[in-house]
Design brief:
alpha/beta, 120 residues, five-stranded mixed sheet
């Protein structure tokens, strides 16, 4: 199983997914990310999925679960880089990803987090 790196950038964590997602990889990511939020005191999480070609219903639900978990730990989450095919698949699967904010790219995602967090 491949581990997904989690990088700290200022008060944010960046998760850049550069591999096909397997169920066990996403479950491990959820646990690693929770640990990283606590360890670093991060106020925001950016999940870059620009290299992800396909998702299934489990992976889609896990993005929503990760965002909810981060919110409970006082960190906002933004998913960036979603490809059109991934968005279409999520809609076709009936997954709205409630609570998951999105942006077209990393730069927009960072601006979105900065504006939502303000001076917190």
């Amino acid at each position: 199983m491949q581990q997904i790196p989690i990088l700290k950038i200022g008060r944010f964590l960046l998760v850049s997914i550069q591999t096909d997602l397997q169920d066990q990889t996403v479950i491990a990511l959820q646990e690693d990310l929770a640990d990283a939020i606590v360890r670093t005191g991060a106020r925001g999480v950016i999940i870059d999925i620009s290299a992800v070609d396909i998702v299934d219903s489990f992976i889609g639900r896990m993005f929503a679960t990760i965002a909810a978990m981060a919110r409970l730990m006082d960190a906002e989450t933004v998913v960036v880089g979603m490809r059109p095919a991934v968005a279409i698949t999520l809609v076709e699967l009936g997954l709205s990803l409630d609570g998951v904010r999105t942006a077209l790219d990393l730069e927009q995602g960072m601006r979105l987090l900065e504006s939502s967090l303000g001076d917190r």
